[in-house]
Amino acid sequence: MPAQISPSILAADFARLADEARAVDGADWLHVDVMDNHFVPNLTLGTPVVEALSRATGTPLDCHLMIEDPDRWAPQYVEAGAGSVTFHVEAAAAPVRLAREIRAKGARASMALKPGTPVEPYEDLLPELDMLLVMTVEPGFGGQAFLDIMLPKIRRTRQLIDKHGLEMWLQVDGGVSADTVERCAEAGADVFVAGSAVYGADDPAAAVRALRTQAEEAARRTSAG
Ligand SMILES: O=C(CO)[C@H](O)[C@H](O)COP(=O)(O)O
């Protein structure tokens, strides 16, 4: 699958959100960080902003819910216009039921793992998902350093996906930049969230294209052995 880039609006200027969304036209997704100040120690935005963003951009919205009780709230993000909804397994009461509900409402269902959460206990759930997100920082804040120690988990997740012959995507989020994207792609990730690396660049759309090229070339080198 070609590499996909999902710029994180956490690093954007919230006073100019519509313009910032359009500044990354050409990205595969727009990553929307939803934080509730309970699951993570930070507070961002909710469904009214997601609705407004979906009117402001044609780029599909990739909503990452860093919130408690996603079983209750996630379906509302599909109704607000999200094309993909990611909930944290650490917060979900019934992850399979929730993934099915997100899919039934018409969005891609995705599940996230914090750095300390292993993937192996969730192997049987993978067919219920369209994407698995391996966090490469502790969720809550942008601009953190990429956790290299997550690379073996990305590799193990890729092995599980391939072992079951699944079409699902493997996303990484946190500290993804020109310096780290190739290691993530080599480990088997194919969807890359990048906040500071995109919105901190002079030309965010060009930064998206450069990250995609780097990821695709790294994946090609890896598959060529
Ligand atoms: O989920 C997140 C934080 O919880 C952000 O999406 C992530 O940190 C992206 O920002 P950056 O690329 O600057 O690290």
Overview features:
single chain; 225 residues; alpha/beta; TIM Barrel; eight-stranded parallel beta sheet; 8 strands; binds ribulose-5-phosphate
Q: Tell me the CATH architecture.
A: Alpha-Beta Barrel
Please state how the strands of the largest beta sheet are arranged side by side.
1-8-7-6-5-4-3-2
Distance between the termini: 17 Å
Largest beta-sheet characterization: 8 strands, parallel
CATH superfamily: Aldolase class I
Name the structural class.
Answer: alpha/beta
Element-by-element helix/strand order = EHEHEHEHEEHEHEHH
Please, how many domains? 1
Q: Specify the helix fraction band.
A: 25-40%
The CATH class designation is: Alpha Beta
Silhouette = globular
Strand content: 15-25%
Number of strands: 8
Report on the structure:
The structure is a single chain. The chain has an eight-stranded parallel sheet with strand order 1-8-7-6-5-4-3-2. The longest helix is centred in the last third of the chain and has 20 residues, at 204-223. The model has no long low-confidence stretch (mean pLDDT 98). The two termini are 17 Å apart. Helix 6 runs parallel beside helix 8. It contains eight helices and eight strands. The protein has one domain (4-223): Alpha-Beta Barrel (TIM Barrel). The chain is globular and about 45 Å long. 36% of the residues lie in helices and 19% in strands. The chain is of the alpha/beta class. Bound molecules: ribulose-5-phosphate. Ribulose-5-phosphate (5RP) binds at residues 8, 10-11, 31, 33, 64, 66, 137, 139-144, 173-176, 193-197.
